[in-house]
């Protein structure tokens, strides 16, 4: 296994001491690979991603993650704040104090990476759901993020857009040596990843090859 880009050890988190969400959660995602995170509702998947990106603080345990992390919400309307595609990506670069030429270059390169270059001036409201998710991903690429965390990014998309997005992320991981951790409920999306992690009740219960995780999920469903 390659060196980990994401490593979590004995992570614990809960809103109260009597209602733990993550319990001694441990996992590892290799650098430069596309992994998926599965589990039933309430298993702690989304909470884990928010801890990784720093939106929440763990009660105990350790998180080791590359510094530059991009987060893609389930609903892109929660993170796209500017009126046009190009402006939204540029907005994410404000803290880097780049020159105007550098900003334009970063924006253009990011849009080209997600195949949205012709839509640079397009109003955000005029985009499809899949295009909005690509803009969110482009924002992370423009910031030179090394890790992408995606919280059920296809949940609100139609089947064709779902396929387009998962293939786009797979390509980005391979071509740009990114690391991606993608939360999903869709077993068909496992065809596109390098590895998968299964969570139950705030703990990782399996981690490995996608087919093995898929078989375990099917066997578990058949036992009920």
Automatic annotation (TrEMBL):
<dbReference type="InterPro" id="IPR003439">
    <property type="entry name" value="ABC_transporter-like_ATP-bd"/>
</dbReference>
<dbReference type="GO" id="GO:0005524">
    <property type="term" value="F:ATP binding"/>
</dbReference>
<keyword id="KW-0067">ATP-binding</keyword>
<dbReference type="InterPro" id="IPR015856">
    <property type="entry name" value="ABC_transpr_CbiO/EcfA_su"/>
</dbReference>
<dbReference type="InterPro" id="IPR027417">
    <property type="entry name" value="P-loop_NTPase"/>
</dbReference>
<dbReference type="InterPro" id="IPR050334">
    <property type="entry name" value="Molybdenum_import_ModC"/>
</dbReference>
<feature type="domain" description="ABC transporter">
    <location>
        <begin position="6"/>
        <end position="221"/>
    </location>
</feature>
<keyword id="KW-0547">Nucleotide-binding</keyword>
<keyword id="KW-0813">Transport</keyword>
<dbReference type="InterPro" id="IPR017871">
    <property type="entry name" value="ABC_transporter-like_CS"/>
</dbReference>
<protein>
    <submittedName>
        <fullName>Energy-coupling factor ABC transporter ATP-binding protein</fullName>
    </submittedName>
</protein>
<dbReference type="GO" id="GO:0022857">
    <property type="term" value="F:transmembrane transporter activity"/>
</dbReference>
<dbReference type="InterPro" id="IPR003593">
    <property type="entry name" value="AAA+_ATPase"/>
</dbReference>
<dbReference type="Pfam" id="PF00005">
    <property type="entry name" value="ABC_tran"/>
</dbReference>
